[in-house]
Amino acid sequence: MKKTLSLFLDRLSEFLAARKGLIPLLGMLFIITNLLIQFILPGSWLASTNLFLHIGLLTAIFGLMLAWAL
């Protein structure tokens, strides 16, 4: 189990090192999705909580920090 997790993290690190902007781009996609939800479903729970906005901001910040470290 420990070896499998180590191998997975090693492969993930190599994948993300070559694609440093992928995670921040995914965060931006979440933010754009939140903007579209505001117009498509104006009174829904997703629109009122801005869930995708918060997830997108956290993902983008995490992605920038990870890209800097790699």
Features of the shown structure:
70 residues, mainly alpha, 4 helices, elongated
3D architecture notes:
This protein has 70 residues and is mainly α. It has one domain (2-69). It has four helices and no strands. It has helices at 2-18, 22-40, 45-49, 51-69. The model has no long low-confidence stretch (mean pLDDT 90).
Describe the structure concisely for a colleague.
By secondary structure, the protein is mainly alpha-helical.
Task: Annotate the secondary structure layout.
Blueprint: H1 2-18, H2 22-40, H3 45-49, H4 51-69
Helix pairs in contact: 2-4
Give the termini distance in whole angstroms.
25 Å
Total DSSP helices:
4
Main β sheet profile: none
Structural class: mainly alpha
What is the radius of gyration computed over CA atoms, rounded to a whole number of angstroms? 16 Å
Low-confidence stretches: none
CA-based shape? elongated
Total domains:
1
> Could you estimate the helical fraction of the residues in percent?
over 70%
Q: Beta-strand percentage?
A: under 5%
Order of helices and strands: HHHH
Give the beta-strand count: 0
Mean pLDDT: 90
